[in-house]
Amino acid sequence: MWYFFSPGIIYGEDAIDFLQNIAGQKCFIVTDKILEELGYLKILTDKLDSYGKNYEVYTDVRPDPTEEGVLKTKELLISYKPDIIIALGGGSVMDTAKAGWALYEYPEFGVDDLHPFNMELYNLGKKAKMIAIPTTSGTGAETTWAVVISRYEEEVWKKLEQAHKGLIPTYAIVDPIFPAGMPPELTRDTAFDSLAHSVEGLVSVWRNEFSDALCIKAIELVFKYLPIAYKDGNNMEARDYLHQAATIAGLGFGNGQAHLGHSMGHSWGAVFHTPHGRAVGLFLPYVTQYCLNNPDESDISTEILGRSAKKLGWAKWADDNRKAAFIIVDKIKELMKQVNLPMNLKDLGISRDDFDKNLKMLVNLCFQSSSSVMSPRSPNTEDYNKIFTYVYEGKDIDF
Ligand SMILES: [Fe+2]
Q1: Under 8 Å CB-to-CB from 333, ≥6 apart: which residues?
Q2: How far is the CA of 248 from the centre of ligand 1 (A)?
Q3: From ligand 1's centre to the CA of 319, what distance in Å?
Q4: Are 259 and 207 in contact (CB under 8 A)?
Q5: How many CB atoms sit inside 10 A of residue 318's CB?
Q6: Is 8-180 a domain of CATH 1.10.760.10?
Q7: How many angstroms separate the Cα of 340 from the Cα of each of 28, 82, 192, 227, 246?
């Protein structure tokens, strides 16, 4: 038995108008100050006003949301008692709202209770529907079961990767009006998050036939539309397809899982605060090489990525799968260059001294990441040390 979970998805221009069809009068909006200042919150509240719905707004979500922020959201939800919760924002906002929703429905629970074996969480939605409106095109959090919450413990910020299928929003409203104003760097970083979800999702140990199809489609869309949207942010066709790609990738990796690029990216982000998409995008070609070099012959990553390269039209059907699979790595590197994504950790401006001082911590954090066990090839401490060092220098993984 396996399973595939998805929110109801409304996408394309004017998708936001679907809100008027959702039963409920009291809306609690979770967002951040930047979106308020940019006028995106007003687009939403004007719509709610026109539908005659009431709302209260919480704008205090910060990047890398903390456990404290989630508990604050829970308190506000319990006091306002909404029947609709709307997350308007990127991954941080959506994760805060999803976790807050679960704790509102089950006030006896805390963040540690948001785990896959908590059967009660399958019953979310009795008090409120959860609507996710992504404003960036990358995290896929509008479709996924995961929430990433930071907790300060043992003198370091740790990213808790909590997850439950019940945390998947009721609806995702994927309207390109919201990411339309993203500057080029944010467009690039978030699209590389989608790309990392799709390429990792293709070979993770939970991959399946449903997730494969979605991951390949998302890769195709990112490669076609990122260069266009990076150059011309006003190209609404490119914005729309990149936005759809993020949701499609979210469904793919949300039902298949990401792996090493995300455990290493989260670990790196916790220590050096590189934006998530930039970090996981940077690790992507290296962790893909590491998987393709797996000496374990039962690992089918090479076959899957080889076939994927052929389906994407990057290799010939007659090509050897190993050769075809490595074309995916080359294509990712080409795209990184095309949109000026840093190609190695050194290029992020981290000194060798700082890197060496933190290497042990970086590796330890990887072992605490649930994504690490989703990899078709599991690194030991020595391998993690080597991979980080190779990525720092920008050397191809040859082991
Ligand atoms: Fe991600």
Answers
A1: 285, 343
A2: 13
A3: 31
A4: no
A5: 7
A6: no
A7: 39, 44, 12, 11, 20
What spacing in Å lies between the alpha carbon of 210 and ligand 1's midpoint?
A: 19
- Which residues make beta-bridge pairs with 171? 8, 131
Cα–ligand 1 centroid distance for 349 (angstroms): 22
| Maximum Cα interatomic distance, the chain, rounded to a whole number of Å | 63
Distances, alpha carbon 237 to alpha carbons 16, 19, 229, 240, 380, in Å: 17, 23, 9, 5, 44
Helix-then-strand count for the chain, H and E: 13, 8
pTM here is 0.95
CA of 86 to the centre of ligand 1 (A): 21
Percent over 90 (pLDDT), the chain: 93
Tell me how far the alpha carbon of residue 52 lies from the centroid of ligand 1, in angstroms.
Answer: 36
Q: Distance from the CA of 365 to the center of ligand 1, in angstroms?
A: 16
Q: Cα(276) to centroid of ligand 1, in Å?
A: 7
Q: How far is the CA of 197 from the centre of ligand 1 (A)?
A: 6
Render pLDDT for 329-381 as a digit per residue (tens, 0 to 9).
999 999 999 999 999 999 999 999 999 999 999 999 999 888 889 999 999 99
Q: Find the 154 Cα to ligand 1 centroid distance in Å.
A: 25
> Strand, helix or coil at 86?
strand
Class of domain 182-393: mainly alpha
122 vs 237: CA distance, rounded Å:
37
Phi first, then psi, for residue 87 (nearest 5°) are -95, 120
Using a 10 angstrom Cβ sphere, with 0-12 exposed, 13-18 middle and 19 or more buried, the burial of residue 298 is: exposed
**What's the gap in Å between 239 CA and the centre of ligand 1?**
19
* CA 269/CA 366 separation, integer angstroms: 11
Query: What is the 81 CA–ligand 1 centroid distance (Å)?
Result: 31
pLDDT category at 157 given cuts 50, 70, 90 is confident
User: Ligand 1 centre from 194 Cα, in Å?
Assistant: 7
Kindly tell me if the per-residue pLDDT of 167 is higher than 90.
yes
Which amino acid makes up residue 97? A
> What separation in Å is there between the alpha carbon of 166 and the centre of ligand 1?
19
Predicted local confidence at residue 88, as pLDDT: 98
Q: Residue ranges of the domains in the chain?
A: 8-180, 182-393
Q: Are 13 and 177 in contact (CB under 8 A)?
A: yes
**Distance, C-alpha 229 to centroid of its chain:** 19
